[in-house]
Specification:
Blueprint lengths: L6 H12 L4 H8 L3 H21 L7 H14 L3 H7 L4 H19 L6 H7 L3 H49 L5
Helix pairs in contact: 1-3, 2-3, 3-5, 4-6, 5-6, 6-8
Length: 178
């Protein structure tokens, strides 16, 4: 695993860029990718030194992956810009996009494709991906249904408790007939 680059090195690289050197010349001098320099530049412009010292902040989670892929597909935003925009390491953005290209949305969400089953069924890879996506969507829908059922039962109990409390308070506030 690659070590985190110290803040001083990042700031020195940005100073070289501000002095007029190109991304390529600075990247060669510091032996790093120009994309990483561009990401640092964007993060620094967006959040300043504080953001740069904390970068990278996020691991590429499910919702962020969806946003990255959507932005990449719809707006054709460069990967280093996506990295800075979502505060995700450049390598994670590259991995996210390449996984999407190879396996589709289901692959990004961890849907498993059994290659032996694909070969036995005679399906094409696209058909297998579609089936895997549908299975994954069904799994997500079932989880959501379980959650909603639980929430519904909770709300029913809460409503019954509130009605009982209101009934109890209502009978306590009435004056007695005696």
């Amino acid at each position: 695993m690659r070590q985190k680059v110290p803040l001083e090195v990042k700031l020195a690289a940005l100073e070289l860029l501000e002095s007029g050197e190109s991304f390529q010349s600075v990247s060669k001098r510091l032996r790093m990718s120009a994309g990483e320099l561009k990401t640092w530049s964007l993060v620094y412009g967006k959040e300043g030194e504080k953001g740069l010292s904390a970068y990278p902040k996020n691991i590429c989670s499910g919702k962020i992956k969806d946003k990255i892929v959507f932005t990449y597909r719809q707006k054709r935003v460069p990967l280093h810009t996506l990295s800075a925009q979502y505060s995700v390491p450049y390598s994670s953005v590259v991995r996210c996009i390449s996984t999407y290209r190879r396996k589709g949305k289901a692959g990004m969400e961890g849907a498993v494709i059994d290659m032996m089953e694909v070969m036995r069924s005679g399906d094409t890879m696209e058909e297998a991906l579609t089936k895997a996506e549908l299975k994954n969507q069904l799994k997500v829908a079932m989880n959501e249904l379980d959650y909603l059922r639980t929430e519904n039962a909770y709300l029913k109990k809460l409503k019954a408790l509130m009605e009982a409390d209101t009934k109890r308070k209502g009978s306590a506030s009435r004056p007695s007939c005696h």
